[in-house]
Amino acid sequence: MTYLTIDLVVMAISTVITVFIGIYAYENRREHGARYLAWVMLFDSLNSCGSIFERISDTLTEKLYWFNFNQSAHIFTIPYFLFFVLEYVGQQRLLRSSKIFAILIYFALWVSLIWTDSYHHLLRYDIKLQEDVLTFSSTGLSVCLNIFGFMALFAALCYLGVYSGRSGSLARKQMVWIWLSVTLPILWVIVGLVNPLPPILWGLYTAVINGIMGLCLFLAIFKYKLLKTLPIAKDQVVEMMLDGVLVADETGAVIDSNASARRLFAGRAVSSAELAGRSIEKLLAPWPQWRNACERMQQDELEIEIGEKEQSRVYTVKVVPLHSASKRKLGTVSVMSDITENRRRYEQMEQLNRLKDELFAIVSHDIRDPLAVLLNLTEMLEEERPRLSEESGEVFDAVKEKVTNAYAMVENLLEWARSQRGGMTLHARSIVLSSVVQEAAKLLQSKSEVKHIRIRNEVRDNIQVCTDREAVSLILRNLLSNAVKYTKPGGVVCVDAEETDEKVVVTVRDNGVGIGPERMKLLFGGAPVGSFSGTLGERGTGIGLLVCKELVQRSGGEIGVNSAPGEGSMFYFSLPRVIS
């Protein structure tokens, strides 16, 4: 096969590639730079076509015509490549219509000089055919115009290079291939000027260079997703993340990182440029667990500390292996999250919790125990109640009520606090439910007698539950206390229980004021609900029902309420049943 045939084949392949890329760019013309890249590919394909027709032409006139044709197309690739670079890097503000028009006018004048050169010979002289190849000598003006064109391309390439240094990994790879696709033809022209080749070889090698240029753009588009916004957007998002990202390959070398990761290692004398290519073994030497996870390409999570003690920062590091489509491990991605402030807040909360525990310990020993003694004394003095005068009896009843209420409030507070910090322990055993109901009703007897409210225990004596006796007693006392509190004088409170297959459902009903639907939603919501005054102005803490909920749930049951304003309330809860 002759050189002529070879370079024609290569130029034809190059033309097909550029046409294909041009069509692809046109179809994606809404992406940054795509519309200008389509023009670049159009003129480049016209340049290749002109070169082909020049090669197959026989006469000097025909060759000169097609040479002018391909030179014109080549010249117009320069401004459109500039436009492509500016829009691709986000400098659309520089591409105003007036500026574009002025630039294109300049290159149009250059092209007009080419087509009229046969009249003024300002660009070429000594035009002839040598070995069936068009040759000529260039004038000083032609050299200056070409140098200007090369400088314009070089400026665009430099700007692209500077921008790529600030971009993410994917954008940098795209720009490298764009850079190569433009640089190779320029370097080839410079080589031809310094060391001229025989015309036949020059045409062949030029065709090869053009083919390589097309392949570079092909790789940039289809391997590195040029003209696709989403990959670049993802790359920029990773670069701007507050979390550090470090990517290592299967050989243990760092291949990518974002700005946060580079700042993280800056204290270890690692600059942005130095981080890429560094060995994981050396870079992560202070953190063996992290280093081992990256070297073995295994998933792991750990905490590390970086910096001096006073200025140290704490990070959580999550290491995730990268897999190919065939599940082969390709490397690891490490994501570093700064948890220094969270750790400090956690330590402050721990300190506050310790203070809270100390406070409740004081409440438990210094308040609850004396109240328990007072409550026992009032129960002992209950026997002397009939001997007291009417006035003294009323004082005694008031004192007993206050002591009972205070003790119940402290007990509820302590039980709720224990449940919140997980310190509550229940000891389940078989108990007769009716006896516990009777004890709870007796403790509330003085309170109910003041309001002339009857507490009826309708629980059958044969019903037994498997639970903690103190827990169910506290549940019943809270529910009965609320029922008495919100029932008008002369009302009735009834306690009943029904057995199911595995549970015993206990109900506490009253004919009191009832509860509205909005407030009913908040009763078991997890936070204390402000207590409303009772029918005689009684006050409470608002945490009794939360204590009931915690105790019932820890006993393996459920608690709920049915109520309506003016129709009374029915609280119910379930407990494990003792099965004979």
Automatic annotation (TrEMBL):
It catalyses: ATP + protein L-histidine = ADP + protein N-phospho-L-histidine. Residues 362-579 form the Histidine kinase domain. Its EC number is 2.7.13.3. Its main location: membrane. The chain crosses the membrane at residues 6-24, 73-89, 101-120, 140-163, 175-194, 200-222. It comes from the Bacteria. It is an enzyme of class 2 (transferase). The keyword Transferase applies. Residues 300-351 form the PAC domain. SUPFAM superfamilies: ATPase domain of HSP90 chaperone/DNA topoisomerase II/histidine kinase (SSF55874), Homodimeric domain of signal transducing histidine kinase (SSF47384), PYP-like sensor domain (PAS domain) (SSF55785). This is histidine kinase. It comes from Paenibacillus thalictri. The lineage of its organism: Bacteria, Bacillati, Bacillota, Bacilli, Bacillales.
